[in-house]
Design goal:
The complex is a heterodimer of chains A (201) and B (397). With 201 residues, chain A is α+β, with helices and mostly antiparallel strands. In chain A, 30% of the residues lie in helices and 27% in strands. A nine-stranded mixed β-sheet of chain B has the order 1-5-6-12-11-10-7-9-8. Chain B has a four-stranded mixed β-sheet with strand order 14-13-15-16, sandwiched between helices. In chain B, strands 2-4-3 form a three-stranded antiparallel β-sheet. Classes of the chains: A alpha+beta (201), B alpha+beta (397). At the A-B interface, strand 4 and helix 7 of A face helix 8 of B.
Protein backbone atom coordinates (compact mmCIF):
# COMPACT_ATOMS: atom_id res chain seq x y z
CA UNK A 1 0.00 0.00 0.00
CA UNK A 2 1.30 3.42 -0.88
CA UNK A 3 1.42 5.98 1.90
CA UNK A 4 0.69 9.52 0.80
CA UNK A 5 -1.92 10.80 -1.60
CA UNK A 6 -3.27 7.42 -2.70
CA UNK A 7 -3.52 6.02 0.81
CA UNK A 8 -7.07 7.01 1.84
CA UNK A 9 -8.71 5.77 -1.34
CA UNK A 10 -6.59 2.59 -1.30
CA UNK A 11 -7.87 1.82 2.20
CA UNK A 12 -11.43 2.41 1.04
CA UNK A 13 -11.11 0.22 -2.05
CA UNK A 14 -9.41 -2.60 -0.17
CA UNK A 15 -12.13 -2.48 2.48
CA UNK A 16 -14.78 -2.72 -0.23
CA UNK A 17 -12.89 -5.74 -1.57
CA UNK A 18 -13.00 -7.36 1.88
CA UNK A 19 -9.54 -6.44 3.14
CA UNK A 20 -10.06 -4.06 6.03
CA UNK A 21 -7.04 -2.05 7.15
CA UNK A 22 -7.10 -1.43 10.91
CA UNK A 23 -7.51 2.21 11.84
CA UNK A 24 -4.41 3.79 13.30
CA UNK A 25 -1.73 1.41 12.16
CA UNK A 26 0.58 3.68 14.15
CA UNK A 27 4.24 3.24 13.29
CA UNK A 28 3.91 -0.39 12.32
CA UNK A 29 5.13 -1.20 8.83
CA UNK A 30 3.43 -4.56 8.50
CA UNK A 31 -0.21 -4.63 9.51
CA UNK A 32 -2.48 -7.68 9.32
CA UNK A 33 -5.91 -6.94 7.84
CA UNK A 34 -8.79 -7.21 10.33
CA UNK A 35 -9.86 -10.63 9.06
CA UNK A 36 -6.25 -11.81 8.99
CA UNK A 37 -6.47 -12.75 5.30
CA UNK A 38 -3.66 -10.42 4.25
CA UNK A 39 -0.55 -8.74 5.59
CA UNK A 40 -0.36 -5.15 4.48
CA UNK A 41 2.96 -3.37 3.96
CA UNK A 42 2.78 0.38 4.35
CA UNK A 43 5.38 1.74 1.95
CA UNK A 44 6.51 4.93 0.37
CA UNK A 45 4.65 5.02 -2.95
CA UNK A 46 7.87 5.03 -4.96
CA UNK A 47 9.03 1.84 -3.22
CA UNK A 48 5.95 -0.20 -4.10
CA UNK A 49 7.21 -1.37 -7.53
CA UNK A 50 10.51 -2.65 -6.07
CA UNK A 51 8.76 -4.61 -3.30
CA UNK A 52 6.49 -6.22 -5.87
CA UNK A 53 9.21 -6.92 -8.43
CA UNK A 54 11.26 -8.86 -5.87
CA UNK A 55 8.22 -10.61 -4.50
CA UNK A 56 8.72 -9.05 -1.06
CA UNK A 57 5.06 -8.16 -1.61
CA UNK A 58 2.77 -10.37 -3.72
CA UNK A 59 0.87 -7.42 -5.11
CA UNK A 60 0.50 -3.70 -4.66
CA UNK A 61 -1.44 -0.58 -5.46
CA UNK A 62 0.56 2.21 -7.03
CA UNK A 63 0.15 5.19 -9.34
CA UNK A 64 0.99 4.71 -13.02
CA UNK A 65 3.30 7.74 -12.69
CA UNK A 66 5.40 5.80 -10.17
CA UNK A 67 5.56 2.83 -12.55
CA UNK A 68 6.91 5.04 -15.35
CA UNK A 69 9.73 6.20 -13.15
CA UNK A 70 10.62 2.89 -11.58
CA UNK A 71 11.30 0.71 -14.64
CA UNK A 72 10.41 -2.30 -12.52
CA UNK A 73 8.97 -5.38 -14.11
CA UNK A 74 5.55 -5.96 -12.56
CA UNK A 75 2.29 -7.14 -14.11
CA UNK A 76 -0.34 -4.44 -14.31
CA UNK A 77 -3.64 -6.22 -13.78
CA UNK A 78 -6.15 -3.42 -13.27
CA UNK A 79 -6.67 0.30 -13.61
CA UNK A 80 -8.41 1.20 -10.38
CA UNK A 81 -9.44 4.57 -11.75
CA UNK A 82 -8.69 6.71 -8.71
CA UNK A 83 -5.82 9.07 -7.99
CA UNK A 84 -6.21 10.58 -11.44
CA UNK A 85 -3.58 13.09 -12.50
CA UNK A 86 -1.71 14.12 -15.59
CA UNK A 87 1.98 14.43 -16.29
CA UNK A 88 2.51 17.67 -18.15
CA UNK A 89 5.17 20.00 -19.44
CA UNK A 90 4.59 23.49 -18.06
CA UNK A 91 6.33 26.81 -18.24
CA UNK A 92 5.98 30.37 -17.07
CA UNK A 93 3.13 32.24 -18.75
CA UNK A 94 5.53 35.10 -19.34
CA UNK A 95 7.92 32.90 -21.38
CA UNK A 96 5.15 32.05 -23.87
CA UNK A 97 6.48 28.60 -24.79
CA UNK A 98 4.22 26.57 -27.00
CA UNK A 99 4.31 22.90 -27.71
CA UNK A 100 7.37 22.09 -29.77
CA UNK A 101 8.11 25.59 -30.97
CA UNK A 102 9.85 28.53 -29.40
CA UNK A 103 11.75 26.30 -27.01
CA UNK A 104 15.34 27.34 -26.39
CA UNK A 105 17.71 25.23 -28.53
CA UNK A 106 18.89 23.53 -25.38
CA UNK A 107 16.15 23.08 -22.85
CA UNK A 108 16.62 22.78 -19.12
CA UNK A 109 13.85 20.72 -17.53
CA UNK A 110 13.21 20.56 -13.79
CA UNK A 111 11.30 17.49 -12.67
CA UNK A 112 10.69 14.72 -10.18
CA UNK A 113 10.05 12.44 -13.17
CA UNK A 114 13.47 12.32 -14.80
CA UNK A 115 12.88 9.10 -16.76
CA UNK A 116 9.54 10.11 -18.22
CA UNK A 117 10.81 13.59 -19.03
CA UNK A 118 13.94 12.25 -20.72
CA UNK A 119 11.88 9.83 -22.81
CA UNK A 120 9.40 12.52 -23.81
CA UNK A 121 12.04 14.98 -24.99
CA UNK A 122 14.25 12.33 -26.66
CA UNK A 123 11.29 10.98 -28.62
CA UNK A 124 10.75 14.50 -29.96
CA UNK A 125 14.43 15.07 -30.69
CA UNK A 126 14.54 18.00 -28.32
CA UNK A 127 17.97 18.27 -26.72
CA UNK A 128 17.56 18.88 -23.02
CA UNK A 129 19.20 18.76 -19.67
CA UNK A 130 17.18 17.17 -16.87
CA UNK A 131 17.44 18.82 -13.48
CA UNK A 132 16.26 16.11 -11.09
CA UNK A 133 14.50 17.57 -8.05
CA UNK A 134 12.51 16.09 -5.20
CA UNK A 135 9.86 18.71 -4.56
CA UNK A 136 8.45 22.17 -5.42
CA UNK A 137 9.62 22.00 -9.01
CA UNK A 138 7.43 25.06 -9.82
CA UNK A 139 10.12 27.12 -8.16
CA UNK A 140 12.79 26.15 -10.69
CA UNK A 141 11.68 28.33 -13.67
CA UNK A 142 10.94 31.26 -11.36
CA UNK A 143 14.50 31.35 -10.06
CA UNK A 144 16.05 30.46 -13.41
CA UNK A 145 17.12 26.91 -12.54
CA UNK A 146 15.15 25.57 -15.50
CA UNK A 147 13.21 26.70 -18.55
CA UNK A 148 10.26 24.35 -18.09
CA UNK A 149 9.05 21.75 -15.64
CA UNK A 150 7.59 18.28 -16.05
CA UNK A 151 5.22 17.54 -13.20
CA UNK A 152 1.95 15.97 -12.19
CA UNK A 153 -1.15 18.11 -12.09
CA UNK A 154 -4.49 17.09 -10.65
CA UNK A 155 -6.53 20.28 -10.91
CA UNK A 156 -4.03 22.75 -12.32
CA UNK A 157 -4.37 24.95 -9.22
CA UNK A 158 -0.69 24.86 -8.40
CA UNK A 159 0.33 25.95 -11.90
CA UNK A 160 -2.21 28.76 -11.79
CA UNK A 161 -0.94 29.95 -8.41
CA UNK A 162 2.61 30.27 -9.78
CA UNK A 163 1.51 31.95 -12.99
CA UNK A 164 2.47 28.93 -15.09
CA UNK A 165 0.70 27.34 -18.04
CA UNK A 166 0.53 23.82 -19.35
CA UNK A 167 2.45 23.38 -22.61
CA UNK A 168 1.79 19.73 -23.37
CA UNK A 169 0.34 16.65 -21.72
CA UNK A 170 2.72 13.69 -21.58
CA UNK A 171 0.41 11.08 -20.10
CA UNK A 172 -2.45 10.39 -17.77
CA UNK A 173 -2.00 8.44 -14.59
CA UNK A 174 -4.32 6.54 -12.26
CA UNK A 175 -3.81 3.97 -9.52
CA UNK A 176 -2.99 0.46 -10.72
CA UNK A 177 -3.21 -2.96 -9.17
CA UNK A 178 0.14 -4.66 -9.84
CA UNK A 179 1.43 -8.15 -9.06
CA UNK A 180 4.67 -10.08 -9.07
CA UNK A 181 4.71 -12.49 -12.05
CA UNK A 182 5.91 -15.46 -10.04
CA UNK A 183 3.58 -14.79 -7.12
CA UNK A 184 0.72 -14.49 -9.57
CA UNK A 185 1.36 -18.14 -10.43
CA UNK A 186 2.12 -19.27 -6.90
CA UNK A 187 -1.02 -17.63 -5.46
CA UNK A 188 -3.16 -17.67 -8.59
CA UNK A 189 -6.52 -18.26 -6.87
CA UNK A 190 -6.04 -15.67 -4.12
CA UNK A 191 -4.76 -13.00 -6.51
CA UNK A 192 -7.38 -13.46 -9.23
CA UNK A 193 -10.06 -13.43 -6.54
CA UNK A 194 -8.73 -10.15 -5.11
CA UNK A 195 -8.54 -8.74 -8.64
CA UNK A 196 -12.23 -9.56 -9.25
CA UNK A 197 -13.24 -7.98 -5.96
CA UNK A 198 -11.20 -4.84 -6.62
CA UNK A 199 -12.67 -4.48 -10.10
CA UNK A 200 -16.20 -4.79 -8.72
CA UNK A 201 -15.81 -1.97 -6.21
CA UNK B 1 40.22 -1.96 -3.29
CA UNK B 2 36.55 -2.17 -4.15
CA UNK B 3 34.96 -4.57 -6.59
CA UNK B 4 33.00 -3.14 -9.50
CA UNK B 5 29.21 -3.43 -9.14
CA UNK B 6 27.55 -6.74 -9.94
CA UNK B 7 30.45 -9.11 -9.20
CA UNK B 8 31.38 -10.90 -6.00
CA UNK B 9 34.05 -12.96 -4.32
CA UNK B 10 33.31 -16.50 -3.22
CA UNK B 11 35.01 -17.19 0.09
CA UNK B 12 35.97 -20.82 0.76
CA UNK B 13 32.85 -21.90 2.61
CA UNK B 14 30.47 -20.18 0.17
CA UNK B 15 32.41 -21.54 -2.75
CA UNK B 16 32.37 -25.07 -1.37
CA UNK B 17 28.59 -24.83 -1.15
CA UNK B 18 28.37 -23.51 -4.72
CA UNK B 19 30.57 -26.32 -6.00
CA UNK B 20 28.49 -28.88 -4.16
CA UNK B 21 25.32 -27.59 -5.84
CA UNK B 22 27.02 -27.49 -9.25
CA UNK B 23 28.12 -31.10 -8.79
CA UNK B 24 24.57 -32.17 -7.97
CA UNK B 25 23.39 -30.45 -11.14
CA UNK B 26 26.13 -32.12 -13.20
CA UNK B 27 25.08 -35.45 -11.75
CA UNK B 28 21.56 -34.96 -13.14
CA UNK B 29 22.99 -33.95 -16.53
CA UNK B 30 25.13 -37.10 -16.57
CA UNK B 31 22.17 -39.25 -15.58
CA UNK B 32 20.38 -38.04 -18.72
CA UNK B 33 23.51 -38.84 -20.76
CA UNK B 34 24.43 -35.24 -21.60
CA UNK B 35 28.06 -34.34 -22.33
CA UNK B 36 29.48 -31.17 -20.84
CA UNK B 37 30.89 -28.57 -23.20
CA UNK B 38 32.71 -25.26 -22.70
CA UNK B 39 33.08 -22.35 -25.09
CA UNK B 40 35.34 -19.28 -24.69
CA UNK B 41 34.44 -16.63 -22.14
CA UNK B 42 34.64 -14.02 -24.89
CA UNK B 43 34.29 -14.16 -28.62
CA UNK B 44 33.67 -11.81 -31.52
CA UNK B 45 30.66 -9.51 -31.31
CA UNK B 46 29.51 -10.74 -34.71
CA UNK B 47 29.32 -14.35 -33.63
CA UNK B 48 27.17 -13.46 -30.64
CA UNK B 49 25.05 -11.08 -32.67
CA UNK B 50 24.06 -13.95 -34.90
CA UNK B 51 22.08 -15.51 -32.10
CA UNK B 52 21.23 -12.92 -29.48
CA UNK B 53 18.22 -10.65 -29.57
CA UNK B 54 18.48 -6.91 -29.29
CA UNK B 55 17.93 -6.89 -25.53
CA UNK B 56 20.80 -9.25 -24.77
CA UNK B 57 23.11 -7.50 -27.23
CA UNK B 58 22.50 -4.27 -25.31
CA UNK B 59 23.60 -6.08 -22.17
CA UNK B 60 26.89 -7.43 -23.50
CA UNK B 61 30.19 -6.26 -22.08
CA UNK B 62 32.23 -5.29 -25.11
CA UNK B 63 35.86 -4.44 -25.60
CA UNK B 64 38.50 -4.33 -28.31
CA UNK B 65 41.66 -6.35 -28.55
CA UNK B 66 44.89 -4.44 -29.33
CA UNK B 67 44.27 -4.97 -33.06
CA UNK B 68 40.86 -3.37 -32.83
CA UNK B 69 38.67 -6.43 -33.19
CA UNK B 70 35.37 -6.08 -31.34
CA UNK B 71 34.94 -8.73 -28.69
CA UNK B 72 32.21 -9.45 -26.19
CA UNK B 73 31.74 -11.55 -23.07
CA UNK B 74 29.10 -14.23 -23.49
CA UNK B 75 25.72 -13.32 -21.97
CA UNK B 76 24.48 -16.92 -22.09
CA UNK B 77 25.68 -20.25 -23.43
CA UNK B 78 23.08 -21.26 -26.00
CA UNK B 79 24.31 -19.01 -28.79
CA UNK B 80 27.97 -20.07 -28.47
CA UNK B 81 26.83 -23.68 -28.40
CA UNK B 82 24.74 -23.15 -31.55
CA UNK B 83 27.84 -21.68 -33.20
CA UNK B 84 30.08 -24.53 -32.18
CA UNK B 85 27.54 -27.19 -33.16
CA UNK B 86 26.93 -25.69 -36.59
CA UNK B 87 30.66 -25.26 -37.22
CA UNK B 88 32.30 -28.28 -35.66
CA UNK B 89 29.68 -30.85 -34.75
CA UNK B 90 27.72 -30.67 -37.97
CA UNK B 91 28.58 -34.25 -38.86
CA UNK B 92 27.89 -35.67 -35.43
CA UNK B 93 24.84 -37.88 -35.37
CA UNK B 94 21.68 -36.23 -34.10
CA UNK B 95 20.22 -35.60 -31.64
CA UNK B 96 23.09 -34.06 -29.70
CA UNK B 97 22.85 -33.73 -25.94
CA UNK B 98 25.12 -31.02 -24.54
CA UNK B 99 25.29 -29.49 -21.09
CA UNK B 100 27.24 -26.69 -19.44
CA UNK B 101 27.95 -25.06 -16.10
CA UNK B 102 29.67 -21.77 -16.80
CA UNK B 103 29.74 -18.09 -15.87
CA UNK B 104 27.96 -15.58 -18.10
CA UNK B 105 28.04 -11.78 -18.03
CA UNK B 106 25.36 -9.17 -18.48
CA UNK B 107 25.45 -5.44 -18.01
CA UNK B 108 22.35 -4.68 -15.97
CA UNK B 109 21.34 -3.07 -12.70
CA UNK B 110 22.71 -5.43 -10.05
CA UNK B 111 20.05 -6.55 -7.60
CA UNK B 112 18.89 -9.56 -5.68
CA UNK B 113 19.16 -12.58 -7.95
CA UNK B 114 20.65 -10.54 -10.79
CA UNK B 115 24.41 -10.08 -10.92
CA UNK B 116 26.62 -8.93 -13.77
CA UNK B 117 28.61 -12.13 -13.49
CA UNK B 118 26.53 -15.20 -12.75
CA UNK B 119 26.66 -18.95 -13.25
CA UNK B 120 24.35 -20.72 -15.62
CA UNK B 121 23.87 -24.43 -15.78
CA UNK B 122 21.88 -25.77 -18.67
CA UNK B 123 21.28 -28.42 -21.26
CA UNK B 124 20.63 -28.35 -24.99
CA UNK B 125 18.95 -31.12 -26.96
CA UNK B 126 19.81 -30.37 -30.55
CA UNK B 127 18.31 -32.01 -33.60
CA UNK B 128 15.17 -33.28 -31.91
CA UNK B 129 11.67 -31.99 -32.58
CA UNK B 130 8.45 -33.01 -30.91
CA UNK B 131 6.97 -33.24 -27.47
CA UNK B 132 9.30 -36.04 -26.39
CA UNK B 133 12.27 -33.70 -26.60
CA UNK B 134 10.28 -30.88 -24.95
CA UNK B 135 9.37 -33.21 -22.07
CA UNK B 136 12.99 -34.23 -21.66
CA UNK B 137 13.99 -30.60 -21.11
CA UNK B 138 11.19 -30.07 -18.60
CA UNK B 139 11.72 -33.30 -16.67
CA UNK B 140 15.46 -32.71 -16.45
CA UNK B 141 14.77 -29.30 -14.94
CA UNK B 142 12.37 -30.82 -12.42
CA UNK B 143 14.90 -33.49 -11.46
CA UNK B 144 17.62 -30.87 -11.15
CA UNK B 145 15.67 -28.75 -8.69
CA UNK B 146 14.72 -31.94 -6.82
CA UNK B 147 18.39 -32.93 -6.66
CA UNK B 148 19.48 -29.65 -5.09
CA UNK B 149 16.76 -29.91 -2.46
CA UNK B 150 14.02 -27.74 -3.95
CA UNK B 151 11.46 -30.46 -4.52
CA UNK B 152 8.63 -28.03 -3.82
CA UNK B 153 9.51 -26.13 -7.02
CA UNK B 154 6.63 -25.74 -9.45
CA UNK B 155 6.66 -25.39 -13.19
CA UNK B 156 4.53 -23.42 -15.61
CA UNK B 157 4.48 -24.41 -19.25
CA UNK B 158 3.08 -22.97 -22.46
CA UNK B 159 3.51 -23.01 -26.21
CA UNK B 160 4.06 -19.74 -28.07
CA UNK B 161 2.01 -21.06 -31.02
CA UNK B 162 -1.22 -20.95 -28.98
CA UNK B 163 -1.05 -17.21 -28.39
CA UNK B 164 0.10 -16.70 -31.98
CA UNK B 165 -2.97 -18.61 -33.18
CA UNK B 166 -5.34 -16.63 -30.99
CA UNK B 167 -3.83 -13.33 -32.08
CA UNK B 168 -3.90 -14.10 -35.79
CA UNK B 169 -7.51 -15.27 -35.36
CA UNK B 170 -8.12 -11.79 -33.98
CA UNK B 171 -6.72 -10.38 -37.21
CA UNK B 172 -3.38 -9.25 -35.85
CA UNK B 173 -0.14 -9.54 -37.79
CA UNK B 174 3.38 -8.13 -37.94
CA UNK B 175 4.38 -5.41 -35.50
CA UNK B 176 0.93 -5.24 -33.97
CA UNK B 177 1.04 -8.94 -33.17
CA UNK B 178 4.51 -8.62 -31.62
CA UNK B 179 3.46 -5.62 -29.54
CA UNK B 180 0.41 -7.49 -28.32
CA UNK B 181 2.51 -10.53 -27.40
CA UNK B 182 4.81 -8.28 -25.42
CA UNK B 183 1.83 -7.01 -23.42
CA UNK B 184 0.59 -10.56 -22.83
CA UNK B 185 4.04 -11.62 -21.66
CA UNK B 186 4.15 -8.65 -19.26
CA UNK B 187 0.59 -9.54 -18.28
CA UNK B 188 -0.26 -5.88 -18.74
CA UNK B 189 -4.04 -6.22 -18.63
CA UNK B 190 -4.54 -2.48 -18.48
CA UNK B 191 -2.77 -1.87 -21.78
CA UNK B 192 -4.35 -4.97 -23.36
CA UNK B 193 -7.83 -3.73 -22.43
CA UNK B 194 -7.08 -0.35 -23.96
CA UNK B 195 -5.77 -2.12 -27.07
CA UNK B 196 -8.85 -4.36 -27.28
CA UNK B 197 -11.16 -1.40 -26.89
CA UNK B 198 -9.39 0.55 -29.60
CA UNK B 199 -9.48 -2.38 -32.02
CA UNK B 200 -12.86 -3.78 -31.04
CA UNK B 201 -13.93 -7.32 -31.76
CA UNK B 202 -14.64 -10.35 -29.66
CA UNK B 203 -11.45 -12.13 -30.60
CA UNK B 204 -9.36 -9.76 -28.49
CA UNK B 205 -11.63 -10.39 -25.52
CA UNK B 206 -10.60 -14.01 -25.88
CA UNK B 207 -6.98 -12.95 -25.82
CA UNK B 208 -7.60 -11.02 -22.62
CA UNK B 209 -9.10 -14.10 -21.02
CA UNK B 210 -6.18 -16.16 -22.24
CA UNK B 211 -3.76 -13.82 -20.48
CA UNK B 212 -5.34 -14.59 -17.13
CA UNK B 213 -5.90 -18.30 -17.69
CA UNK B 214 -3.74 -20.73 -15.81
CA UNK B 215 -4.40 -24.28 -14.70
CA UNK B 216 -4.10 -27.92 -15.75
CA UNK B 217 -5.95 -30.12 -18.23
CA UNK B 218 -9.18 -28.18 -17.81
CA UNK B 219 -7.68 -25.03 -19.34
CA UNK B 220 -6.72 -26.96 -22.47
CA UNK B 221 -10.43 -27.58 -23.07
CA UNK B 222 -11.04 -23.90 -22.53
CA UNK B 223 -8.70 -22.83 -25.32
CA UNK B 224 -9.38 -25.69 -27.73
CA UNK B 225 -12.22 -23.79 -29.47
CA UNK B 226 -9.96 -20.81 -30.22
CA UNK B 227 -7.06 -22.89 -31.54
CA UNK B 228 -8.05 -22.90 -35.18
CA UNK B 229 -4.71 -22.76 -36.93
CA UNK B 230 -2.90 -26.07 -37.56
CA UNK B 231 0.10 -24.70 -35.67
CA UNK B 232 -1.88 -23.88 -32.55
CA UNK B 233 -3.73 -27.20 -32.67
CA UNK B 234 -0.41 -29.01 -32.87
CA UNK B 235 0.84 -26.94 -29.93
CA UNK B 236 -2.18 -27.96 -27.88
CA UNK B 237 -1.54 -31.61 -28.69
CA UNK B 238 2.11 -31.22 -27.62
CA UNK B 239 1.14 -29.73 -24.26
CA UNK B 240 -1.32 -32.59 -23.75
CA UNK B 241 1.36 -35.14 -24.52
CA UNK B 242 3.77 -33.49 -22.07
CA UNK B 243 1.15 -33.44 -19.32
CA UNK B 244 0.37 -37.12 -19.95
CA UNK B 245 4.03 -38.06 -19.55
CA UNK B 246 4.31 -35.87 -16.45
CA UNK B 247 1.40 -37.73 -14.90
CA UNK B 248 3.26 -41.03 -15.18
CA UNK B 249 6.28 -39.56 -13.39
CA UNK B 250 4.18 -38.07 -10.59
CA UNK B 251 4.88 -34.48 -11.68
CA UNK B 252 1.34 -33.62 -12.76
CA UNK B 253 0.46 -31.62 -9.67
CA UNK B 254 3.59 -29.51 -9.98
CA UNK B 255 2.90 -28.40 -13.55
CA UNK B 256 0.48 -25.71 -14.67
CA UNK B 257 -0.25 -24.22 -18.04
CA UNK B 258 0.08 -20.42 -18.11
CA UNK B 259 -0.91 -19.03 -21.49
CA UNK B 260 0.80 -15.71 -20.81
CA UNK B 261 4.18 -17.37 -20.28
CA UNK B 262 6.17 -16.46 -23.40
CA UNK B 263 9.70 -15.72 -22.15
CA UNK B 264 11.98 -14.15 -24.76
CA UNK B 265 9.66 -13.63 -27.72
CA UNK B 266 12.33 -13.34 -30.37
CA UNK B 267 13.99 -16.52 -29.27
CA UNK B 268 11.47 -19.21 -28.40
CA UNK B 269 9.43 -20.72 -31.19
CA UNK B 270 7.21 -23.23 -29.39
CA UNK B 271 7.23 -24.94 -26.03
CA UNK B 272 8.39 -22.79 -23.09
CA UNK B 273 8.57 -23.36 -19.35
CA UNK B 274 9.69 -21.75 -16.12
CA UNK B 275 10.36 -23.19 -12.67
CA UNK B 276 9.94 -21.30 -9.43
CA UNK B 277 9.40 -21.69 -5.70
CA UNK B 278 6.77 -19.84 -3.73
CA UNK B 279 9.17 -17.87 -1.55
CA UNK B 280 11.25 -16.21 -4.27
CA UNK B 281 9.76 -13.52 -6.48
CA UNK B 282 11.71 -14.56 -9.59
CA UNK B 283 12.02 -17.82 -11.50
CA UNK B 284 14.86 -20.26 -10.84
CA UNK B 285 15.05 -21.91 -14.21
CA UNK B 286 13.44 -21.83 -17.61
CA UNK B 287 13.78 -22.77 -21.21
CA UNK B 288 12.01 -23.89 -24.30
CA UNK B 289 12.16 -24.67 -27.98
CA UNK B 290 14.29 -22.42 -30.17
CA UNK B 291 14.07 -23.91 -33.65
CA UNK B 292 15.09 -20.61 -35.23
CA UNK B 293 18.57 -20.33 -33.71
CA UNK B 294 20.71 -22.98 -35.44
CA UNK B 295 19.42 -22.05 -38.90
CA UNK B 296 20.86 -18.58 -38.28
CA UNK B 297 24.24 -20.31 -38.11
CA UNK B 298 23.48 -22.13 -41.35
CA UNK B 299 22.52 -25.44 -39.76
CA UNK B 300 18.84 -26.21 -40.19
CA UNK B 301 17.99 -28.33 -37.16
CA UNK B 302 15.46 -27.88 -34.35
CA UNK B 303 16.51 -27.59 -30.71
CA UNK B 304 15.17 -27.35 -27.21
CA UNK B 305 17.10 -26.28 -24.11
CA UNK B 306 16.85 -24.91 -20.63
CA UNK B 307 19.01 -23.35 -17.96
CA UNK B 308 19.07 -22.72 -14.26
CA UNK B 309 20.71 -19.85 -12.37
CA UNK B 310 23.12 -21.41 -9.89
CA UNK B 311 23.23 -18.29 -7.68
CA UNK B 312 19.45 -18.20 -7.60
CA UNK B 313 19.40 -21.77 -6.31
CA UNK B 314 21.91 -20.78 -3.64
CA UNK B 315 19.70 -17.84 -2.68
CA UNK B 316 16.68 -20.12 -2.38
CA UNK B 317 18.60 -22.60 -0.25
CA UNK B 318 20.23 -19.96 1.96
CA UNK B 319 16.85 -18.43 2.69
CA UNK B 320 15.73 -21.72 4.08
CA UNK B 321 18.89 -21.98 6.12
CA UNK B 322 19.37 -25.41 4.72
CA UNK B 323 22.73 -27.07 5.00
CA UNK B 324 24.08 -25.24 8.00
CA UNK B 325 26.26 -28.01 9.34
CA UNK B 326 29.83 -26.86 9.73
CA UNK B 327 32.12 -28.51 7.28
CA UNK B 328 35.11 -30.50 8.35
CA UNK B 329 37.69 -29.69 5.70
CA UNK B 330 40.58 -31.88 6.86
CA UNK B 331 40.66 -35.65 7.47
CA UNK B 332 44.15 -36.02 8.89
CA UNK B 333 46.90 -33.78 10.33
CA UNK B 334 50.50 -34.89 9.76
CA UNK B 335 53.63 -33.59 11.48
CA UNK B 336 57.17 -34.64 10.57
CA UNK B 337 56.13 -37.59 8.41
CA UNK B 338 56.12 -36.61 4.72
CA UNK B 339 55.93 -40.17 3.41
CA UNK B 340 52.93 -40.92 5.63
CA UNK B 341 51.24 -37.73 4.40
CA UNK B 342 51.80 -38.78 0.77
CA UNK B 343 50.30 -42.18 1.49
CA UNK B 344 47.23 -40.56 3.09
CA UNK B 345 46.76 -38.28 0.06
CA UNK B 346 47.03 -41.31 -2.18
CA UNK B 347 44.07 -42.80 -0.29
CA UNK B 348 42.04 -39.79 -1.37
CA UNK B 349 41.96 -38.19 2.07
CA UNK B 350 42.28 -34.46 2.71
CA UNK B 351 45.64 -34.14 4.42
CA UNK B 352 47.00 -31.13 6.23
CA UNK B 353 50.78 -31.06 6.66
CA UNK B 354 52.11 -29.07 9.65
CA UNK B 355 54.47 -26.27 8.54
CA UNK B 356 55.09 -24.78 11.96
CA UNK B 357 57.20 -27.62 13.46
CA UNK B 358 54.64 -28.23 16.22
CA UNK B 359 55.48 -30.86 18.78
CA UNK B 360 53.15 -33.74 19.61
CA UNK B 361 51.07 -31.70 22.09
CA UNK B 362 50.89 -28.77 19.71
CA UNK B 363 49.59 -30.99 16.90
CA UNK B 364 46.96 -32.52 19.16
CA UNK B 365 45.76 -29.11 20.39
CA UNK B 366 45.50 -27.87 16.80
CA UNK B 367 43.60 -30.97 15.71
CA UNK B 368 41.17 -30.66 18.62
CA UNK B 369 40.61 -27.01 17.80
CA UNK B 370 40.02 -27.64 14.07
CA UNK B 371 38.01 -30.85 14.61
CA UNK B 372 40.51 -32.94 12.65
CA UNK B 373 39.78 -36.58 13.62
CA UNK B 374 43.27 -38.09 13.15
CA UNK B 375 46.86 -37.01 13.76
CA UNK B 376 50.03 -38.70 12.46
CA UNK B 377 53.24 -37.75 14.28
CA UNK B 378 56.70 -38.69 12.97
CA UNK B 379 59.05 -40.11 15.66
CA UNK B 380 62.83 -39.59 15.75
CA UNK B 381 63.29 -43.31 15.00
CA UNK B 382 61.34 -42.93 11.73
CA UNK B 383 58.16 -44.62 12.94
CA UNK B 384 54.79 -42.86 12.80
CA UNK B 385 52.39 -42.62 15.73
CA UNK B 386 48.67 -42.41 14.90
CA UNK B 387 46.36 -40.67 17.40
CA UNK B 388 42.52 -40.34 17.28
CA UNK B 389 41.33 -36.91 18.39
CA UNK B 390 38.02 -35.80 19.89
CA UNK B 391 37.23 -32.19 18.94
CA UNK B 392 36.99 -29.69 21.80
CA UNK B 393 33.64 -28.12 22.73
CA UNK B 394 34.16 -24.96 20.70
CA UNK B 395 35.03 -26.83 17.50
CA UNK B 396 32.02 -29.08 17.95
CA UNK B 397 29.48 -26.23 18.11
Amino acid sequence: MPKGSLYAETVRRLAAAGIVVPENPGRRLVVPSLDGSADLLLLRATDVPAYVEFGAADCGIVGKDTLWESDRSVAELADLGFGGCRLVVAGRRADGYQNGVRYPTFLRVATKFARSAQTYFSERDLPCEIVALHGSVELAPIVGLADVIVDLVATGGTLEAHDMVEIDQIAESTARFVVNQVRFRAKYDAITSLLRRLERT
Amino acid sequence: MRLPPGVRDWLPQEFAFKREIEEKIREVFRSWSYSEILTPTFESVEALQQGLGERLMQQTFRFNDPLGQSLALRTEMTTPIARVVSARLRHASLPLRLSYVAPAFRYEEPQLGRMREFTQAGAELIGAAGSGADSEALFMAIETLDAVGLSDARFDINDAAIVDGALSAAGLAGDELTACKELISDRNLVALRAFAQARGGEALETVLRLTMTRGRDEVLELVRPICRTPASQAALARLEAILARALVLGYADRINIDFALLRDLQYYTGFVFEGYIDDLGFSLCGGGRYDGLLPRFGYDVPAVGWMVGVERILLALERRRADERPRNEVDVLVGGADAAAKAERAKGLRVRVDTRDLDRDGLLAYARHKAIPRVLVGKPDGSVEEIRVEPDEEARS
